[in-house]
Write a structure and sequence with these properties.
It comes from hydrothermal vent metagenome. This is Translation elongation factor G. Keywords: Elongation factor, GTP-binding, Nucleotide-binding, Protein biosynthesis. The chain is built from 16 helices and 38 strands. The chain is of the alpha+beta class. The chain folds into five domains: 10-284, 3-Layer(aba) Sandwich (Rossmann fold), CATH 3.40.50; 296-398, Beta Barrel (Elongation Factor Tu (Ef-tu), domain 3), CATH 2.40.30.10; 408-481, 2-Layer Sandwich (Alpha-Beta Plaits); 484-596, 2-Layer Sandwich (Ribosomal Protein S5, domain 2), CATH 3.30.230; 602-692, Alpha-Beta Plaits. The strands form eight sheets. The chain has an eight-stranded antiparallel β-sheet. Helix 6 packs across helix 7 (224-231) and helix 12 packs across helix 13.
């Protein structure tokens, strides 16, 4: 099957922002103007197409990245709408991994908010070119130029204005297009589909000249002809200007800035034109790199239909009608429905029974996908998020995804006996869909523990259990995901000997434990020489250590950031076994942890509170009482913004306390920052609770 749209006309984009900046509304307008929907959906009345889960429609926030395909002026655009709430950062992360470009939406009043900075950093890590859309220009307090300054200051980007607003707040009418040098005005009829091109308003001409010059100057850095014309004061053609600015955007040297109000249908068509003009096609991004299986040798896959196929699974979703859907991005080659593929990450062969193109939660079956496409497969049993799907004759393993560690846990129990059987299966399905959500069983209490990125994250998981799987569950109080580690390097020795007549058990292990840098994880080194421990017993020793690390000796929390070296030991010709060395390794590690000065680590959160001036003293006092450190304060749009770091353990229930302390006028955002040792006074309380458990 031939391509419907040439590869150079394909765009794979994301729409990202802070919560409530208007991402989903902007996407709804894009779908309306590209003809995918015939009625505009609104977030506030729960009819938005992209927010397809029931909880999303109720809460008015986007939880999972809904993917949809649309066409604009002979260009195919795959759009992924991503959540702005920090608890769903994994959704943003996995979307950016497979996108080529993104639209960053900013609120004209709030400007660059904490989650805006987080998603911007994620996009920078994946080298994703961006254009900015300053939304809600009709809101009271809208300040376009202030948002641009915030972008320069906080995001450290070279923000270049491609449009200037005509009017603001209630008086916002349209924009001046600095490339075309004319005004575009919407009169409000026909849902904004109709607009007029007019002369630039007299009172804006001076400002337009100033910003047009900045625009041409930015282009001149990427085109010598434009540089010459700019220096000589000559006119630069529109085509040359667009080509140079596209080059600058793709090189991540500039961020083009546009504006409008998606809710009032102003500025969306011009934003679509900008997506086509300035964001990359799959041909503009470097060929994807990966490793050949079972080797460190690098391999490259060109973005061509005739290359061996390689794709990355970036999302798993359960569909009530077709079962498991695996969303994937094709980097090279073509894949037909019904064909066998090789999952090189798992080393398993699988069959794609059907390929579907998604429009939010509706499906359209297609026969084939090409290089640069995003689609969903039905029938893949083993593939999970981050797996590579490739040609069995030309295997490659693409770089996977960074999965954040959960910071909060709660115990969950089924309400009835019938729920008991369904709970485990349902939780496993949700864990496959969302890699930042983890499920484990507490061996001592027999409770099921679920862990995630925040209170809202786990609240929605419990909600989904009831709605999608009809499982009623009750949950305990949130628990902080503490970790354990050691302060100093130590050596330890353990012997496991059991003589019971007949064949006994014998394992003797000497280990050295050293603290690693925070975030380095576990490292195991084998320094056995001369055969004091045979090779076949080294793996069991490591496995014994790993099992012990699941529950530390200080308070029963997982152990992290430790380097363990096995350097000596002994064995018995008859009595030694894998089990004996596994137990000896575990005993030795526990002994070493006790000697090494155990430390309990707790998650510290970045907390930003936006508060009216008169309540600032109360808010700062409250943060300090929560063991918080206030890092700074600044004025923003009539409010004070307080930035601080606070231990997660002291932040439960904060939203209720903040509301009552500020008459509901303050808001806050919180995201994980780092782990640090728990103070001694707090440690005693935690260890006492652990002993009771």
């Amino acid at each position: 099957m031939a391509r419907e749209i040439p590869l150079e006309n394909q765009r794979n984009i994301g729409i990202m922002a802070h919560i409530d900046a208007g991402k989903t509304t902007t996407t709804e307008r894009i779908l309306y103007y590209t003809g995918v929907t015939y009625k505009i959906g609104e977030v506030h009345d729960g009819t938005a197409v992209m927010d397809w889960m029931e909880q999303e429609r109720e809460r008015g926030i986007t939880i999972t990245s809904a993917a949809t395909t649309c066409v604009w002026k002979d260009y195919g655009i795959n759009i992924i709408d991503t959540p702005g709430h920090v608890d769903f950062t994994i959704e943003v992360e996995r979307s950016l991994r497979v996108l080529d470009g993104t639209v960053a939406v900013f609120c004209s009043v709030g400007g660059v908010e904490p989650q805006s900075e987080t998603v911007w950093r994620q996009a920078t890590r994946y080298n994703v070119p961006r254009i900015a859309f300053v939304n809600k220009m009709d809101r009271t307090g809208a300040d376009f130029y202030n948002v641009v300054e915030m972008m320069k200051d906080r995001l450290k980007t070279r923000a270049i204005l491609f449009q200037l607003p005509i009017g603001r707040e209630e008086g916002f009418q349209g924009v001046v297009d600095l490339i075309e040098e004319h005004a575009v005005v919407w009169d409000g009829s026909e849902l904004g589909a109709e607009f007029r091109i007019t002369e630039i308003p007299e009172d804006l001409k001076e400002k337009v000249a100033e910003y047009r010059e900045q625009l041409v100057e930015a282009a001149s850095d990427f085109d010598e002809d434009i540089m010459e014309k700019f220096l000589e004061g000559e006119k630069v053609s529109k085509e040359a200007l667009v080509a140079a600015l596209r080059k600058a955007t793709l090189a991540l040297e500039i961020t083009p800035v546009f504006c409008g109000t998606a809710f009032k249908n102003k500025g969306v068509q011009l934003l679509l034109d900008a997506v086509v003009d300035y964001l990359p096609s799959p041909l503009d991004i470097p060929p994807v790199k990966g490793l050949l299986p079972n080797s460190e040798e690098e391999a490259i896959r060109e973005t061509k239909d005739d290359a061996p196929y390689a794709a990355l699974a970036f999302k798993i979703m359960t569909d009530p009608f077709v079962g498991q859907l695996t969303f994937f991005r094709v980097y090279s080659g073509t894949i037909k429905s019904g064909s066998y593929v090789f999952n090189s990450t798992k080393g398993k062969k699988e069959r794609i029974s059907r390929i579907v193109r998604m429009h939010s939660n509706k499906r359209e079956e297609i026969d084939m996908v090409h290089a640069g496409d995003i689609a969903a497969a039905v029938g893949l049993k083993y593939s999970t998020t981050g797996d590579t799907i490739c040609d069995p004759d030309n295997p490659i393993i693409l770089e996977s995804l960074d999965i954040p560690e959960p910071v909060i846990s709660i115990a969950i129990e089924p309400k009835t006996k019938s729920d008991q059987e369904k709970l485990g299966v349902s939780l496993q399905k949700l864990a496959v869909e969302d890699p930042s959500f983890q499920v484990k069983s507490d061996e001592e209490t027999g409770q099921t523990i679920i862990s995630g990125m925040g209170e809202l994250h786990l609240e929605i998981i419990v909600d989904r259990l009831l709605r999608e799987f009809k499982v009623e569950a009750s949950v305990g109080k949130p628990q902080v995901a503490y970790k354990e580690t050691i302060k100093k390097g130590v050596k330890a020795e353990a012997k496991y000997v059991k003589q019971t007549g007949g064949r006994g058990q014998y394992g003797h292990v000497c280990l050295e434990l050293e603290p690693s840098e925070r975030g380095e994880g576990f490292e195991f080194v084998n320094k056995i020489v001369g055969g004091s421990i045979p090779k076949e017993f080294i793996n069991p020793i490591e496995n014994g250590i790993k099992e012990s690390m699941e529950s530390g000796t200080l308070a029963g929390f997982p152990v992290v950031d430790v380097k363990v070296t096995v350097f000596d030991g002994s064995y018995h010709d008859v009595d030694s076994s894998e089990m004996a060395f596994k137990i000896a390794g575990s005993m030795c590690f526990k002994d070493g942890m006790k000697k090494g000065g155990q430390v309990l680590l707790e998650p510290i959160m970045d907390v930003e509170v936006v508060v009216p001036e008169q309540f600032m003293g109360d808010v700062i006092g409250d943060l300090s009482s929560r063991r918080g450190k206030v890092l700074g304060m600044e004025a923003r749009a009539g409010f004070q913004v307080v930035t601080s770091t606070v231990p997660l353990a002291n932040m439960f229930g904060y939203s209720t306390d903040l509301r009552s302390a500020t008459q509901g006028r303050a808001s806050y955002s919180m995201q994980f920052s780092y782990y640090e040792p728990v103070p001694t006074s707090v440690l005693e309380t935690i260890t006492a609770k652990a002993q009771v458990r």
